[in-house]
Structures are given as C-alpha cells and as structure tokens.
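Re: duplicated header lines in exported structure tokens

Our pipeline writes sequence and tokens for each protein into one text file. With two proteins the header for the second block appears twice in some exports. Here is an export where it did not happen, for reference. First protein block:
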Amino acid sequence: MILPTESIGSIPRSEKLMEAQRRFDAGDIDKPTMEAFYYEAIQQTIRELEATGSPIITDGEQRKSHSFATYSVEGGKNFAPDGLEIPFSDGHVRRLPRLTAGPFRYALSAADTLSLSMPLTSLPMKQAIISASALSLMYPVNELEGYDRETFLNDLIDEQEKEIRGCFDVGAQKVQIDFTEGRLALKLDPSGSVLSSFIELNNRVLERFSKDERQRIGVHTCPGADQDCTHSADVDYAELLPSLFELKAGNFYIAMAGESNPERALKIVARYLKPWQRAFIGVIDVNHPRIETPEEVCERVLQAARFIPLEQLGTTDDCGFSPFCDDVSTSRETAYAKIRARVEGTAMAREQLTSPRMA
C-alpha cells in the first residue's frame, strides 16, 4: 500500500468513563458495572474513529484501566505501587508497579479486550501492547527470593508472545509494541547499555515469530506524552534510531512532528531503515493543542518522502492521545480533529506523490 496511515492507540477518556474509574477504584461500583462502562466507551470510540476516515482503527485503549503501560498487571496480587519513577518535563511523575514475588503473569491481555472490540466494526483493527522491556522495569533492583531475574524474563517473554499471538488469533491486522522507554533508557543511562539490553529483550520476543508475522508487528517510539509533557525529548534521536532498527519488526512508528529538527532525524531514519521495514512518520504533535491543517500534514509527508522511499513510508501521530486515564490535557474532539487532519493530509500527499507529473 502506498502511504498507509495509522493511529498509535490511545484516545482521551470521556469524563463519564473517568468518573466511573474513580468510583471503581474507591470501591463504590463493582467489576461487572465497570466492565459495562468500558464496553460503552469502546463502542463510542470505535464509532467516532470510523467517522474520521481512518482506514484502520483501534479501540482507543479505553479498557486499559489506568494506562497503556500497566494494564497487563493491574489487579495482580504480587505487585506493590512503589516501583520505578518516571519524571516528566513539567515535574510530575508516573510510577510503575513493583513485582514482589513470582511468578510473573498477565492479569489482562490486550487480546482479551480486542476480542470485545472486533465485532463492533467492519474496519481492520490494530492493537497496541506494552513492550517486554517496559515490563522488565517492574522487577526490583534486589533479586527476589526464589524467583531470579532470568526466570522472570523467561516468563515475561512467554506472556508477551502469548499476548501477540492472541491478538492475531482474534483478528488483529497489526500489533504495535509501545517502546516509549527506548529514548528514556538513554536518559537514564547515556552509555547505551540499558538500551542495548532492551533491544535484546524485545528481540527475544520477536524472534519467536515468522518473517511474515513480523511484517504485521510494529514498534512505536516517542519521548512520552502525558499532560502535554515528555520524559525524554532532550535525548538526541541520533543516539536512539540506529539501535531502534535492529529490532526485528517490520514497522516502526516514530514521533517526528514535535522534533525541533525533523529533517535531521528523517535523514537518520533513511540511513538505518532496512529494506523490509516501513517507517510510519509522526505528522501530528499530540502534545500541542493546536490542530494541524491537512495542508500542514501534507507538507510534513512530502518532507519525509524526500528522504524515505515511498514504498517504505507511512504516517502516524507522534503518540497516543492522553494514554493515562486521568490526563485531561487533550479533549476527544481535539484528538479526532487531529486524526482527520492526518488522514486527509496523507491523502493529499499520496495524490501528489503518485501523480504522473511526480512519477
């Protein structure tokens, strides 16, 4: 396909859903009632995404109760809330859960929620999942008694393989691994050893899939998007991108619209992108409230096409919109307007790039 365009995943929650989540967390409503709220939110989000003209949609990650990063372990009895802190540029902090005992098992698979979403649309669907490397950060610094780190990693890899295969089994056209911690790894450890360990771990998962299956798996990288803030935008892309394309995936979703020097970053993408890989370039800045015009999106696509072969190019948003459940920095209306601009702007660029005069 020439110039495919895809969302990353998250759509801002409605106030109704956020209030229900607060009530559930406080013990005021039970799980079946909360599940009914999730289902209603998924139905509404799918209808609204269909209306944007998107050729492939997600369920907006409405069922990922608190965030895209922690959905798989929430409710697990062997986790404590005092795990690794991730600071954002405005000073606020998000915190991962900490594993307290083995074995590591998913409490919720993205395949479970996708199975509820698939019957609600005739459009193809993609499913975003959190990376094995992000989940590995939940293992404590001090080794757990009776459950060493390597055993944990083996369990983690098994669980992620099962999740990806489950998504394919229920009909996902694409599975996207969220790897936002890739750039963050270089901020935590400028030597690159943490990033290298992340690449190796994620490849242990990807190597379990065939070449054809990996063409339906993608990796998303960004400097973070929470309350219109980032956690690692100050890290030079030149330090991340060469390693990123060592991941054995067929698709890469790369935040670019928010970059201060996108042309420089695009040149790096073009240099390291392998012939069997496609780069979905971010043309929508999800951390900026202004809604891009289709014409602006078109110009960003044309800029990317000057460096990346057209048959290896796609478009996306820099990140998901409000991927944490309490983030109200972006409205649903703004998110959908930005998505429509991406879809329309990509179509404009496709027409220009494939016209006889451009050929």
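Second protein block, exported in the same file:
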Amino acid sequence: MKTLSNQDLINGIRSGDKRLLGKAITLVESKKTEHREQAEELLKAILPFTGKSIRIGITGVPGAGKSTFIESFGKLAIQQGKKVAVLAIDPSSSLNKGSILGDKTKMEELAKEKNAFIRPSPTSGFLGGVANATFETMLICEAAGYDFILIETVGVGQSEVLVADITDVFLFLKIIGGGDELQGIKRGIMEMVDLIFINKVEEENRLKAKNTKVDLMRALHFLPSKEKNWKVPVLLGSALNNTGLEEVYEKIQEFTDLKILNHSFEGTRKKQAEKRFDYWVQVYILQKTKSDQSTETFYEEHKKNASELKSNPSTEAKVFVEKLLKK
C-alpha cells in the first residue's frame, strides 16, 4: 500500500473523496506496526469530526434479505437528504483469511449513489464475525460526514452482541418460516433488539405475517425494557418492493430522539468506547508480551501447558498474568 500522509487522508476524508476514505480504512485495518502507529495519529486527528451519525446494526438469519433491506433503506435515506455508509462484514475463511466480499455486488444500485459508501470488510477470523476495526472504520465514516452508518452482521454466533455493542439502534430482520415462528430466535437477540422488521411480506402471506407479529410482541412483553418508555415495534414489509421502509425510518428517528431525551444516548456511546478500550488493552498487552524476549519464554511455556492440557487453560492464563504483573 502506497503510504499517504495523514494530512492527505484527513483532507480526503473531510472532502468526501471515496478513494482516500477507502485508503484510510485500509490503513486502520492493517496489522503492521508502522500502519498502526499512523492509524492512531489519524484517528486522534479526526475525533473532533465524529459522533454525529446514527449507527444502526442490522442482523438476521441468512436469507432474511439483509443486503436488499440495506440497499432499499439506504436509497430511502438518501432521498431524505442523508448520506449513508454501509459496513458489510463478510465471512472470511478461517484457514486462508480469504473473504467473499460479495455485498458490494449485491448492492449495485446503492453503490452508484453519490451519497453512499459501501465498504465490505473481511472478518479475518475475528470473534463473532465482526471485523476487528469496524468501530474505527465507523469513526472515519462519521468524520466524512455520513449521517447513517449501517453495519450488517453475518448473523452467526457472537456477531449480534458485538454489533449491538457499537451501535445506537439494533434492528432484527425476520422472515416467515414453517412451524413455530419463534423457534430458533435466541432470547439474547430478543433482549438486544430495538426494532423488528418482518421482511418479504407479500399479499399471500400477510395473514401469517400478522400472526408472527402477534407472537413476537407477546414474547417481547415478557422481556425487560432495554430503553425507558420504548416498546420494541414489530413492523411488516418488503425491502424488495419498498414497502414498510418509511415506517422503519421514522421509528429509528423516534428511538434516537427518545434516547437523547432519556439522556442515555451519550452514556451508551461512552460505554461502547470503554469496551473498545478494554479490547485494545488486551491486544496491546498480548503484543507487548510476544515482542518482549524476557516474557515471551514463559508465555510460550504456559501456552504449551494449556494446549497439552497439563492444567486448565484458565489456570495457566492466571499464573502467566500474575508472573507478568510481578515482572
């Protein structure tokens, strides 16, 4: 990657140059030490321009129509005079770290929009299918003036939790399936959601969709309220046919306004930043440990004990950390 100065990147980000915006994100995603150092400086410089977007996490099982929903919702937001950034997390191979990166081709119409930016990011084996630098990428998009940042999960494992931890609104896409409509929906996801959209609703399945809505609302009734005075809405529509999306748009605005009124908006953002701090503390401690010859030896020794199950891995980790802190 050709190294550009941070001033070049900042000017590009602020002027809306998508090519330089992409280069800034590539820099932040890089694991090379020299790139990380430049990325830290870049992120520090753009922080005053961040924080003005609405961050929306979108989840749903494969086949729920996430990409179609994002494209249709993105186009609607642009019609309302907004700028939209899409961070589509692509599943990577755990063996070769290759990525499908297919979302850009799925959102061809949105990609053509001047006020849209789509960034497919490989998970690179990061826990739960959320790219390592998604939070930092989001900050760069905010500095570039994007009003909505849509983060699509791969819909597996811990990805929902991790996306919910970095967004203001968490949207769950549901489709009507056979049998028990609530089967397979984890309680944890239901506790995290702020809005549910039943997608792919046509005239012929509308009655079934309404029954699913009743079931979901009944289930939500027994869960603790995530936000004061907010009852999670269950909306019906079709992203493909552009029905029900305006109501989603309105509910997102309504929910964001309520969070500001409740004084929870900024508090949530602070907690999110604290979680990122905790994450990077772990990363840098591990990096420092591996690069320091005097600590690397006993790190490898305890790691070997754990891998061979000479003792419990958590015990080995505890002993190692105690040694590290004494040192």
